[in-house]
Amino acid sequence: MLIALQETPALRLHPADDVAIALAPLGAGRTLTVAGYTLQLAQPIGAGHKIALRARGTGDPVHRYGQVIGFATAPIAPGEHVHSHNLAVGAMQLQYEFGSDIRTPPPVEPRSFMGYRRPGRRAATRNTIAVLGTVNCSAFTVRRIAERARAELLPRYPNVTDVVALTHRAGCATRDNSPELEVLQRTLAGFARHPNVAGYLFVGLGCEVNHFESLLGTQQTRLGAIDLPPYIGIQDAGGVQATIEAGLAALQPLLAAADRVRREPVPLAELVLGLQCGGSDGFSGITANPALGHAADLLVAHGGTAVLSETPEIYGAEHLLTRRARTPAVGQQLIGHIRWWEEYTRREGFEIDNNPSRGNKAGGLTTIFEKSLGAVAKGGSMPLDAVYGYAEPITSAGFVYMDTPGYDPVSATGQVAGGCNLIAFTTGRGSCFGFKPVPSIKIATNSVTYERMRDDMDIDAGRVLAGATIAEVGEEIFERLIAVASGQLSLSEAQGIGEDEFNPWILGATM
Length: 511
Known about the structure:
By secondary structure, the chain is an alpha/beta fold. It has 3 domains: 79 residues, Archaeosine Trna-guanine Transglycosylase, Chain: A, domain 4 (Roll); 132 residues, Rossmann fold (3-Layer(aba) Sandwich), CATH 3.40.50; 229 residues. Helix 7 links the parallel strand 16 and strand 17. Helix 7 packs across helix 14. The longest helix is centred in the middle third of the chain and has 20 residues. The chain is globular, with a radius of gyration of 24 Å.
């Protein structure tokens, strides 16, 4: 895609589209020609917002990307602003096909990154020690152990990346042996045995539902054989201060062992990339998301894994993914998750179209269908090889899907628990996102956000609006991913962002 902003103030993305996208703020009364349509703007149109190219009657479908993004709720004349006041989701009828769009990865020369090998596990991009709480009641103690370890112990071990505290707001007031508890336990186990975690310590209170024996019992396979469980209970240890001292003592041998590990060349096939977007705008599906999709295709071609998630944010676009399903069973798994979300939101008094946020709408996105069609572009074009539940271990290579909420911290927590050792995060409005112990690079969809937030945005995908191609920006993202995987700090890492984003999905009632 080549766009000359100076010559093209608005862009139609597909010949079937009823709207064009304003590439810069446009004043009311301005006359412009877009894709053969001559329009006089009825209202001011913000950058990233939609302009009607042709008349739409009430109830008529409105197309963007060649797909339906909603239905007119009032007559729309050419040149009018198309947004929440005259467009809504309506009753969408999608046709599902399975395996009708299967593509072959392009041939590539083998590449490597400088990573840490982990016997019996995927290679790592970071060499971190994690302190994990089993319950919210141990959160303060967990944070204090990590704080003191960073200050008092970490300087002695220069080859260790960090000591991170992973705390949460759950672990009790739920049912024992419940699906809700199992989701939390597999999330915690996924972080404990994550490739980027060289060693870990669990800290609990002692009387919680998620007691360590329960966690160990349900997650024994994932945690592996443990002769001396890396756990301290505050009640058994004699209180908070005694637990902090015991925690520091327990971390010293873990730090010493991690410090002996060195980076070495590792094939790119060992990379598992979590694909995320947040603070999306009308440019997300034009610039950053398709560019990230190109980078994801390159990673898959090298034998790596790209993980798309955020089920409420593929809603209305899932038919594009079922066409790429390697088998009908994989496609049906994806649809099963869509149906679960329909029932879940109905039960909770929500609609999936509640998903576009105030910022999304200010940036030009109107309906969940429109947001989803831009979001799935992060997943590139390779076949969909597998579908996983939240925080389940990702064992397949290629392009895969994990069912998660759209809320970025909860979604990324599931991806990392599944094994993602790298995150790429696109944003139009400017999400300040990091995720320890996994490096996250942020890709701005427009150059205004990139320039305004230079300390936070790693890549400027807004260059597409000035003439760069999707492939050029995608290759820039791909090379940055390799560099960050090899030890270069992402901008969020450089600021120490990423502990508070750990946010396991809490299902069900709190008792």
